[in-house]
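In response to reviewer comment 3 from the previous cycle, which asked for concrete evidence that the modeling workflow produces usable outputs, we include below a single protein chain processed end to end. The sequence was submitted unchanged, and the resulting structure tokens are shown without manual editing.
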Amino acid sequence: MAGIALGALVMVPEPADAADCRDGLERLSTAVKAGSRDEALAQLVPIDAACPAEVATKARRAYGAMLLRAVDDMSARGAGDDRIRPLVEQAAEHGRLWDAWWRLADLDLRAGRYAAADRAYHQAIDSHVDQVGGTCGGAERLQHLRARAEEAYLLANREGQGGGLRAWPDTPWPFRCGHWRKQAPSLLFRFGSAALEPAARRDLDAIAAKLRAFEKPLVRIEGHTDFRGSDSYNLALSQRRAAAVARHLMATGVAVRFEVVGRGKRAPRSIKGPDVYPQDAIDRLNRRVEVSFW
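The workflow returned the following structure tokens.
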């Protein structure tokens, strides 16, 4: 139950509403143990009203963890996404658990709702930092979440779903623990093209704004392609893509040192659980330029 002991929920301070708080927590504890989801949900509002904020938050997480256990049981019995989604939504909305937002984002991603997936991944990232912390201990998990958020963002823009999405997450944390290097969101290209798309230009302007905070950073610009076509064709195409990004950054007037390389199709994007995407989405994610700086 997300590491929350039910017994700990009834040990609360003694405010004026302490009796109401204890009663609500006891009813919640009984409902959770019995697996009564509706009864447990009904206790959250009175608990919010009567209990200290920290206790109410733990109660919500206990409720969310109960729902996720039910989701795990249903999934083990072969339930499809349409059946488990309502419980995952409840665990995210009312339980406010970072892993519930993660599961909801994965459901949206599989359904091709890329903008919704991007928003849910960012909720998972923000909630993870709040609940677990943004230190190196959770860096691998956070890196996976950010990679998925970036993929959802890129595919949402490609599908015309990207209005209002944020390319750079607001929550700070060490992108690569133990290393100072920063990596920007990838920039996608159309098949066979080295022309910058409007979304890529907007993201490059945001990258340039961040680069101005550093004293002559070294910027590595690395072009990539999908697997279609010969090695020589794709190597040249990836170099043209990287050069187009370098030209745009130079045109912004930012003072940087460049390292511009093309990798062709030799370094495909690392996608965990590639079965979540159709092949055309994987191809789109591989037609990219990656910008890192330190």
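The first strand starts at residue 182 and ends at 183. We consider this sufficient to address the reviewer's concern, and the full set will be provided in the supplementary archive.
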